[in-house]
Amino acid sequence: MSGSTPFYQKHHRHYDRGYRSKELESAVSQYQSSSSSSSYAARRSSSRASASAALSASSGHVVALHERTTPIPCSYTRLSSSYSGLEESRLSPMPKRAKPTYLAMDKENQIIGYVVPIFRGSQEYASGFSDTEEARVKESAGYMARRNLFTSGLEMERTEQTSRKVSMRESAERISLSKRIYENEEHHKRMNKDSLMHAPEFVIKPRSHTVWEKQCVRLHCTVSGWPDPRVVWYKNNVTIDPMAHPGKYKLESSYNVHSLEINRCDFDDTAQYRVSAMNSKGELSSFASIVVKRFKGEVEEALPMPRHGLISEYGITFDTHIVDGFGVSFGREGETMSLGATVIISPNLARYQPEVQWYRDDVLLQPSKWCHMHWSGDKATLTLTHLNKEDEGLYTLRITTKSKYETYSAYVFVRDADAEVEGAPGAPLDVKCQDANKDYVIVTWKQPAVDGGSSILGYFVDRCEVGTTHWSQCNDTPIKFARFPVTGLVEGRSYTFRVRAVNKSGMSRPSRVSEAVAAMDPADRARMRGTSAPWTGQIIVTEEEPAEGVVPGKPKELEVTEATKNYVVLSWKPPGERGHEGIMYYVEKCVSGTDSWQRVNTEIPVKSPRFALFDLAEGKAYSFRVRCCNSAGVGEPSEATEATTVGDKLDIPSAPGRVVPTRNTDTSVVVSWEASRDAKELVGYYIEASIVGSNKFEPCNNKPVKGTRFICHGLVTGESYVFRVKALNAAGLSECSQESEAIEVKAAIASPTPPYGISVLECVRDSMVLAWKQPTFIGGADITGYFVDYREVINGVPGTWHEANVKSVSDRAYRVSDLKENRKYQFQVRAANMAGVGIPSLPSGTFVCEEWTIAVPGPPHDLQVTEVRANTLVLLYKPPVYQGRDPVNGFYIDIKEADAEEEAWRGVNEKAILTNYMKIKILKEGETYVFRVRAQNKAGVGKASEPTEPVLAETKPGTTEIVVDVDDDGVISMNFACSNLTPDSKFVWSKNYEEITDDTRITVATSGGKSKATFNMLAEDDIGIYSCAVTHTDGAGSSYTLSAEELKKLLELSHDHKFPIIPLKTELAVELQEKGRIRFWLQAEKISANGKIEYVFNDNSLSQGEKYKMNFNKDTGVIEMIMESLLPEDEGTFTFQLQDGKATNQSSLVLIGDVFKGLQKESAFMRKEWHRKQGPHFVEYLSYEVTPECCVILKCKVGNIKKETVALWYKDGREVKGDEKLTFTEGVLKLEIAQISKKDAGVYEIVLKDDRGQDTSTLNLTEQGFRDLMNEVFSNIANSSTALKIQSTDEGIRLYSFVSYYNEALQVTWHHKDSAIAFTDRIKSGVVGEQLWLQITEPTEKDKGKYAIEFHDGKDGLKRTVELSGQAFDDAYAEFQRLKAAAIAERNRARVAGGLPDVVTIQELKALNLTCNISGEPLPEVVWLKNEREIVSDGHYVMKLEAGKYASFTITTVNTADSGKYSILVKNKYGTESADFTVSVFSPDSKK
Q1: Please, which residues have CB within 8 angstroms of residue 853's CB and are 6 or more apart in sequence?
Q2: What pLDDT shows up at residue 1177?
Q3: How far apart (Å, rounded) are the C-alpha atoms in residues 206 and 1037?
Q4: For the chain, what is the radius of gyration of the CA atoms?
Q5: In this model, does residue 536 exceed pLDDT 90?
Q6: Residue 1458 and residue 1424: Cα distance in Å, rounded?
Q7: Residue 606 pLDDT
Q8: Nearest to residue 757, comparing CAs of 916, 949, 928?
């Protein structure tokens, strides 16, 4: 083990062979001097164990070993020592049994783990050797070690693949054999346990580890013994319980291999670990130590680097991608915020979980009440439940896998909550407790960025004892220093603290509470944390003699640790001589220059070696000293401190230096500044921003930043800002720095990236025309031009670059002149913008300068894609520079999917087009395409252009189209709006995709995100395709085709707008109003108050007067003319003429012939009706209503009645009595006819009259009218009928239905099997009350079937049906038989008809004779009873039965013994009945 290299050195960034030990170096030298023949010999002489050990050392792969072999000392620890072990194994005559083990070894042959084999062989393997000599040579230990250390990477990989396959096959077969041997051994052990039982033995002991913090470590051991030992792990002799620390420890046991895994080690895990194995034969322990170290130096402590490379447990590399991440976020105190991102890990293993960690400002976050973390398997979420300014900062999500880690970061800003008092400052932040002792703690905080508009006067510190909700203020007056000593704490209790700021307007909200801190001695706190040093293996017990009370000595190292104008803090160390009991302290002060010492804490001594003194005179100098005391007395004072002047020792930092803002994005600016000079204990900086001209500064950060550079987010695009910075420490905030120069918020400008895709468009003897593609990133500003360089290539060696153009060219094509014929050249291009000239492109391919003589044209160039939609796009291109022998006469467009092969190119157009653009309409949404163009002339089709970049067919969110508009003056314009503008964006209008520069035909005006192109005088010359593109966007643009047909429509619409017509909602119409008035009216949709109307009849103008009443409602646009009546001379045409400014309209209505006469007649009727309604009248005339109870109600509705109004009812001219009294609220007159019959037929009339007139209403209820009424009554009766039901009686079966009311005139028909029933003595029908029934006497099988009852109401009628068959008939028939039998029994059962009294009172010695009637068939048996006992006829009691129906009972001579209860009991086979009577006998003497 001494020669092994710790794993943390092997994975260290500076690890090299220098870390190897001398022992390992000698092993390397030995293998370098060894020959292949010796390795071969060693391989042949080795046993299966040595071969497997060699396999385990190859290239760090894990191999499983499971065999019986002689234990070889140190054979598993170092490869160099394996030779002697191999020989021993070969020469050993009696191999000792050993437990099967599974060892995993690294490249240095060190045991790093244990694994379970992944293969199980299906064949037995007995020899343990390879099939061929070559395979055995390659698998030898020497060969494998030499290959690992000294072969090249390619050879190692090839050999490793071969050996891996062979080793796995042999291992699988060996395991199969070993398993059978192991099972056989286990069987023999069970058969003979006593002879094989032995104490536990550690075959492999756990080894010590030194690891980095937050790494995992695993301890392994292999234990043998019989019976199987019980294994327990200990830490510092304390049993490890995984259930008590879930997720921290993991214990595993398999195949006698036991492991302890410790997850995410920290300093507390530094300890000695013991594993104990115990069975019935004994107990054995083994020890190992773990030392946990922390990364230092360049390795960042907060974000420890994970181990790189493949991990043997998985053998694969995980690729991690964080998508849909969170952006810069803004919140307010008290709100809840969630940050989340989707994580894609490939390959996706079902049970594999990555390590998900969240950091704020590089500090690892732990779950708490302030932040909750959630991992759903593909999404990581962090929820900040209650935002405070402490939560502001840079948040980082880190996903760590076994291979590597990925991070994603964004800043979170937290603004102050609204102040409870207007003008109050923001809450302080970052409250912490320091230097806590028995009765003393120092509370620190950071000042807020917002002071509320007035300076902060100071701060109040509050404390709250843990477990309570009561807050108490610690200082009476506000303190300005951001640090305050709190005294008077109760030892052993825990406290939380908060801070509030105050200014002249009021108090701020309290800060977030601090973490709880306990008031106790720091040494006691350390002991409670349980921090322990690494186990040394020794336990030292000391004992001291108890001592008598000793007066403590002088405190040591007294000093003033902090001094402000409000307080002074002293600290010291306890004395060495103090005895065993606790000590306390008295503090004394002395004004400098005097010898008068004054004790400060006279009443209660302090327990802590810290003390804060208040109420000192500012500006005075003091000296201090401390005395110790205990029960033995007060000790000598300490050495006095030097004179300390009361005042702030920490100065407020100076203002930061020059502030320089730099453009970053369209909503953020990078602000840099010079640090404050000579600043002590600097906490950080606050940055403030103000829109130019507003003079109102707002904080950019609410949590101080420590650097001198900060990105201010959340700014308004296009606005200009100035910035200033303030520094702060515990003493306060500095003055503001000088304001920066104003800067406009927009994306930063950079030089463009290199162009690419350089190609040759034409070549002559001394020049070449080049083309290239625009850079993928133009740097945030328009490209102002390009520079071309060239160099000659001679014999494959490129020469020096030369400038081809001194002035930049704006086109993406340029002719390079002064070249030499038949020479080879390379070219490079650089793009330039206002930020400068970018880096050059990669050198082009090598082109030969020779004149082209081909007949067909060269390739088109400068292909551009615009107006991309889900199914269409527009392709622009420029014609070839080289025309060929003849001019170009057309173009062909080719298309293919981006990922398709070259053979997939296909044509878009079958016929050549002449334009330099084409709209392609054959796209599929979501597909990605590339395009190219070919030119043709008379000679044929030339070479294709370079293909475009891949284009995704989709309509991007926010895409808009050109809108054509015609205003009220007839002006025609095209309008385009874009919501994705950048500060440098411009609208570019084109006609037929050539920019419009001449404003004689079109005038362009742009404002904000909208642009308008107005036609000056639309004509045929303007026909074409108009497009608008927006620069510096993601391809925003649209086009509009102005065709001849569209031109005609626009000109007509323009004419209508120039010469407008007043729109009408309704044309002229006529309607009749009350009293028969005639109203002519129309409604204009839009007319102003200045509109004028002319009323015309038969070309004659009408005016306001008695006959015509005109009205014009300017609010609603309703125009009307009212006439009282229509006379014959009013037949003709009525017209309303409207005028509103230059807008006109008119509408006419023709009233002649039948139309006029019908309107005139209706007007006269309405006028007559109006006069009728001036007195009492009928609103609704007389009618009838049949109620559900089949009552007939004659009713009418009346109106305009009064108390004197009389209503008279008549039938056939005779008055009948109706409602005697009428009221104004009733309005309805009724006459009820109950149980209507033929006698109620007749003509009914009602007359209303009073002094204003009368009105009459008549209702004819004769003949057809009466029949209709009765049919409605019959219909109500039928609808009220219930469903037919079946009832069994003692005579047969009865079918019945109930109705709510029965009228004798109702016609009903009974049906059986859809045929009307002919009634007989056996089948009868009838009505009982409201029940309609059909009786079937003595039913038979023929009576089965469907029955129905039909109600006739003069219309369709109504049927109710029931099915009397099957089970229904059987059940009814059985019930009939039962009832019939019951009726017979009831008729024939024995009965006592009567004649017996209830009580008989009789005098003694009298005779009693009682007689009663009996009946029954057969003749009943008669029994007489007295007091429930049968009486036998004798001389005293005489019982007789005469004629079979008269029973008599006689007592010849009554005596007192005859008193009692008597009964007669009659019975036959159908039943029994009894009658009781009581006999009471009295003597004459007793009665007297």
Answers
A1: none
A2: 87
A3: 72
A4: 58
A5: no
A6: 14
A7: 84
A8: 949
Query: With 0-12 CB in 10 A as exposed, 13-18 as middle and 19+ as buried, what is 1078?
Result: buried
CA distance 1264 to 1354: 11
Average pLDDT score over residue span 348-375: 88
Which residue in the block uniquely carries the two structure tokens 């001594």?
605
Is the model's pLDDT at 704 over the cut of 70?
yes
**What pLDDT was estimated at residue 814?**
94
Q: Is the pLDDT of residue 537 over 50?
A: no
DSSP state letters, 1136-1168: EEEEETTEEEEEEEEE-HHHHHHHHHHHHHHHH
Report the b/e string of 416-433 with b at 16+ CB within 10 A. Answer: bbebeeeebbbbbbbbeb
> Strand, coil or helix: what is 1393?
strand
SS3 of 559, please? strand
Q: pLDDT tens digit string along 187-207?
A: 666 655 555 678 899 988 998
Start-to-end C-alpha separation, the chain: 139
CA 1335/CA 425 separation, integer angstroms? 101
Alpha-carbon distances, residue 381 vs 345, 356, 396, 889 (angstroms): 16, 10, 12, 62
Residue 1376, φ and ψ in degrees, nearest 5: -60, -45
Arithmetic mean of pLDDT, 642-659: 87
Structural contact between residues 908 and 883, judged by C-beta atoms closer than 8 angstroms = no
Q: Which two tokens stand for residue 1135?
A: 């017209």
Please give the C-alpha separations between residue 882 and each of 178, 761, 769, 878, 937, in angstroms, as whole numbers: 81, 7, 9, 12, 11
Confidence of residue 1033 (pLDDT cuts 50, 70, 90): confident
How far apart, in whole angstroms, are the C-alpha atoms of residue 117 and residue 584?
67
d(Cα 383, Cα 389) in Å, to the nearest integer?
A: 15
Rounded mean pLDDT, 1348-1353: 89
Helix/strand/coil for 1378: helix
Distance CA 63, CA 102 (A): 8
Strand partners, 409: 396
Tokens of 800: 């020096």
Residue linked to tokens 């990364």: 295
For residue 777 the two structure tokens come to 């990133």
- Tell me the β-bridge partners of 1242: 1261
**pLDDT tens across 819-829, in order?**
999 999 999 99
Q: Distance between CA 379 and CA 397 in Å, rounded?
A: 11
Q: Do residues 473 and 642 touch, judged by C-beta distance below 8 A? A: no
Selection from 119, 66, 55, 60 nearest residue 256 by Cα: 66
Cβ atoms of 271 and 236 within 8 Å: the answer is yes
Nearby residues of 1457 by Cβ (< 8 Å), 6 or more positions away: 1481
Q: Which of 1047, 1158, 1050, 1147 is nearest to 1096 (CA)?
A: 1147
Q: Tokens standing for 131?
A: 């099939």
CA distance 421 to 419: 5
Whether residue 436 is predicted with pLDDT greater than 50 in this model: the reply is yes
Distance of CA 1215 to the CA centre of its chain: 83
Strand order in the sheet with 659-665: 659-665, 668-673, 709-712
pLDDT attached to residue 478: 92
The model's pTM: 0.45
Q: pLDDT tens across 221-270, in order?
A: 999 888 889 999 999 888 898 887 877 899 998 878 899 999 888 878 88
Tell me the pLDDT of the chain averaged across its residues.
Answer: 82
Rounded Cα distance, 1240 and 1186, in Å: 14
Position of tokens 């395709």?
1025
What's the pLDDT at 815?
94
What 8-state DSSP symbol labels residue 319?
E
